[in-house]
Specification:
membrane; transmembrane; SpdA protein; DUF2637; transmembrane helix
Length: 209
């Protein structure tokens, strides 16, 4: 209970800021949409879409950092979406401002405060989430060469050694856990240091097991 109270006191002000700033930004966007032909529920829908797009893009950007997903090009897709949402939100807020410096500053304050609050919440959520446990690496010091025959099973007339199949299963499981997809013949051949035919036979055995 005490821990919950401390966490509430820590995140409460940021949540209040996000709610108030979001409401102000939402109102400016809705009014701008209404003044440009999007009356009724459509103006509300536009305001919701812009604000939630910013929240979603900020969350996706933090998830990419956590999972280590690499971006293709100078900017990732979440960053581009977030940038577009910020531009639309600020433009709608500034459209409601008096044509003065202070008018623009005060009109842009709700949108800016809302985005800052969202970024703070995402930053804290990322820090509080437990990191994924590191996978135990397959011990390369295991005396695998003693378990691996130099020829394929059909060339020897013998079945695959159970210890070799177990070791190949561990390698395949680790590859799937790390990369999210089954191991290929070439990857298994490289990890075990065996021939292509033996790697194919091992992979076939694992798939039918």
């Amino acid at each position: 209970m005490r821990r919950f109270a401390c966490r509430l006191l820590d995140t409460g002000p940021v949540l209040i800021l996000a709610a108030i700033a979001g409401a102000g930004s939402f109102t400016h966007i809705r009014d701008t949409a209404s003044q440009h032909g999007q009356a009724g529920w459509m103006s509300w829908a536009i305001a919701v879409c812009i604000d939630l797009t910013c929240v979603m893009a900020a969350r996706e950007r933090q998830r990419d950092k956590k999972t280590g997903r690499t971006q293709r090009g100078p900017l990732s897709w979440p960053v581009l979406v977030l940038t577009g949402g910020i531009i639309l939100s600020l433009a709608a807020n500034l459209a409601q401002a008096d044509p003065t410096i202070w008018g623009w500053i005060t009109a842009a304050t709700p949108a800016s405060a809302f985005l800052i609050a969202v970024s703070m919440l995402e930053r804290r959520a990322t820090r509080l989430e437990p990191s994924a446990p590191e996978l135990a690496p397959v011990l390369t010091s295991t005396p695998v060469p003693e378990l691996i025959p130099t020829q394929a099973p059909d060339e020897q007339g013998d079945a695959l050694a159970p210890a070799l199949v177990d070791y190949a299963q561990r390698v395949a499981d680790e590859h799937h856990a790390r990369h999210g997809k089954p191991i290929t013949d070439d990857a298994l051949r490289t990890r075990l240091g065996v021939s292509s035919q033996l790697a194919t036979d091992l992979l076939r055995t694992l798939r039918t097991a």
